[in-house]
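Lab notebook, bench 4. We co-purified these components, and the gel suggests they stay together. Before we commit to crystallization screens, I want a quick structural picture of the whole thing.
Request: model the full complex, all chains together.
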Amino acid sequence: MSEEVTLEILRYRPEVDREPRFQTYTIPYQEDWVVLDGLNHIKDYVDPTLSYRWSCHMAICGSCGVMINGEPKLACHAFLRDYRHDVIRIEPLDHFPIERDLVTVMDGFMEKLSSVKPYLIAKQAKDLSDGENLQTPLQLMAFKQYTLCINCLLCYAACPQCGLNEDFVGPAALALAHRYNLDSRDSGAEERADVVASNEGIWECTFVGACSEVCPKHVDPAAAIQQTKISASLDWFKARLLPGAHR
Amino acid sequence: MSRRPYLRKIKRSWWLGHRRYAVYMVRELTSLFAGLYCALLVVGLWRLVQGRVAWEGFLAALSSPLGVAFQLVCLAFASYHSVTWFALTPKAMPLAVRGEPVPPKMIVGLHYGAWVVVSLIVLIAAGV
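Here is the predicted assembly.
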């Protein structure tokens, strides 16, 4: 008999379920399958009512984040073989409302993301005829790591502060704010500061560091937030202590 | 079909489920002992102001078995806090010299170096 693997999946169908409950599926084991392949197998051959998000199957799109045995992971980035002799327990990402099965409601994150203005804000609009904005490799290196975020939200699921305070702007949005603040072409730091340096912004972070540990793209949001704390503190002192400063 | 999103609240025991969160909570706990030790120093100042007898009583209390045990516990927590903080410094304060990032180990090493220097100054000032 060929080998099998058991998946325990948290189901929630709002039209019939009062609250989420686990459903167990037994599927064939394949050496080269990731958890997402298992979910696709269930969807195609066992239970077409199972809902989950996915798109690229290669850790680029950031859609398939789920909790796997309590740890936030991309379902396309977690091999079944790494859980060979365990029951694999799959749940929607922690700290997000469940829309259906493994699908979470991301509206709160989308609002937080847009609140930090994650785009280049130029001091003066530049005419196309003035040519491109040049940047040295060194200037690029200052922020490149923070551009790699795929908005998969594993960091929000790992961060206890996100679970304890739903208003916390959170790791990914703050890391992206930092990314634009560090960009030599950007002049928007002051516009972002109202959100970034607020109580619900960087100061809600207590440096648990879990966001960086679970990040599949090694963005290191924890570092971004701590660096922002230092620069926000310096700005605060400068605004109050330097002659001619006003705020 | 109407939407009915379900929010699973975080449990009070969230930090017990994973080593990384338990380690974090121990680190948070260290602040309690740092605070208690600060309170001890304030009490020391207060006793000093009250005169020689009070001050000598305070010193005697410090060197009693209970006093020594308390200070050792505080020292252990303060050391844990310092070591874990130094390990995090390269994230919070990445340095670059002439465009080249300073290796994380060197940033941590500089903090240990500063710790040793400050400790020596304190020991010399205390006349040890």
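The radius of gyration of chain B is 22 Å. Worth comparing against the SEC data before the next meeting. Chain B has a mean pLDDT of 93.
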